[in-house]
Amino acid sequence: MPPMPDSKSTVLTDRFGRVVNYLRLSVTDRCDFRCVYCMAEDMVFVPRQQLLTLEELAFVGQAFVELGVSRIRLTGGEPLVRRNLMSLVHSLGKLAGLDELLLTTNGARLESVAGELVNAGIKRINISLDSLQPLRFATITRTGELHRVLSGIAAAKRAGIERVKINAVIMRGQNDDEIIALLDFALEHGLDISFIEEMPLGVTSRSDRQRELVSSQEIRARISSFYPLMASAETSPGPSRYYRIPGSSSRIGFISANTHNFCESCNRVRVTCEGQLLLCLGNEHSVDLRAVIRAHPGDMDVLKTAIVAAMAIKPERHHFYDPDRPQVVRFMNATGG
Ligand code: SAM
Ligand code: SF4
């Protein structure tokens, strides 16, 4: 039975009984990088007037927290390119009931704002890093400079972020020879690291993503010939599985959205920078929350009722790389990774 929409609800539950307590909130689809797996070379971005304002983003965050969401991750696009982002971070950081306010960033602009982010309540930061070789890094990101990201990682550590995690998308023939180098970097600097399987979102210049996919299983096997990997009990609902190496505090994650289907324990939804509530990363099911907010400015009950009602269309699972299903045309930067 789908849940009856009710703004007084304090838990979001979908029709499969999954509790949604995690929101990924995208603050922009723009970015100063053009990573080959995320974007096409020529991207058209959302016109600024179509973006949710920072106040609207805070309102959406508040609605989800009142509905039982305890963890919000700010993402994009690149969140740190959004002007005055800090005011949103401060607003969300004050929400009673929000246990964790997190950020995913490419790290290039982190150095100057890391301290302020911590003061505003950001507890953990994920930073994308797919190569430690400056030229290769520039090729993968198309516009990025490795030294700026390394400075950003160092600044996050100095600022006292509890856990800094590296996210590395591994592509065969591009950076799969750096799996151990990236892991060693994480171990040496006391960072967590997650190895991510590339997902087929949007039409990028990468024509054969499926062939270049390096599965988590293969990455684990390669690591195991250098280090003993122990499965860790610290799993969170979603596509990540965690491991540890004896004697190290680093958590080693594998995000296997393609080769493992953990949809049955999915606990998350996404809101794009335009206010589309996306019920699943790999499906197009969505609800236009911007329309709701702009038709009923300041009406929290109407917004919460719309969010509760949306749970009825959260799909059971994604179907990445299924030839019988249409490809998801949405790019990752527009999805809120
Ligand atoms: N700009 C920030 C960053 O790069 O961390 C946040 C947004 S980015 C879309 C979030 C995460 O999605 C990054 O870790 C990135 O590596 C990952 N990502 C982007 N496109 C992807 C794809 N097609 N498959 C798997 N991961 C992807
Ligand atoms: Fe930008 Fe992040 Fe996408 Fe790279 S992965 S293009 S840094 S949004």
What is the SS-derived class? alpha/beta
- Termini distance? 30 Å
Count of extended strands:
14
Order of helices and strands: EEEHEHEHEHHEHEHHEEEEEEHHH
What's the level 1 CATH class? Alpha Beta
What's the name of the CATH homologous superfamily?
Answer: Aldolase class I
Strand content: 15-25%
Nearest-angstrom radius of gyration?
19 Å
Give me the number of helical elements.
11
CATH architecture label name? Alpha-Beta Barrel
Largest sheet: 12 strands, mixed
* Uncertain residue ranges: none
Which outline best applies?
globular
Fraction of helical residues: 25-40%
Strand order of the largest sheet: 9-10-11-8-7-6-5-4-3-12-13-14
- Stated plainly, the CATH topology is called TIM Barrel
How many domain modules? Answer: 1
The average pLDDT is 90
Report on the architecture of this protein:
The protein has 337 residues and is of the alpha/beta class. It has one domain: Alpha-Beta Barrel (TIM Barrel). Helix content is 28%, strand content 19%. The chain contains eleven helices and 14 strands. The protein has helices at residues 54-66, 85-93, 114-120, 134-141, 146-158, 179-189, 209-212, 216-224, 289-295, 300-310, 332-335; strands at 12-13, 19-20, 22-26, 71-75, 100-105, 122-128, 163-170, 192-197, 230-231, 240-244, 251-255, 268-271, 276-278, 286-288. It has a twelve-stranded mixed β-sheet with strand order 9-10-11-8-7-6-5-4-3-12-13-14. A two-stranded antiparallel ribbon has the order 1-2. The longest helix is centred in the N-terminal third of the chain and has 13 residues, at 54-66. The structure holds S-adenosylmethionine (SAM) and iron/sulfur cluster. The site of iron/sulfur cluster has 13 residues, from helix 11.
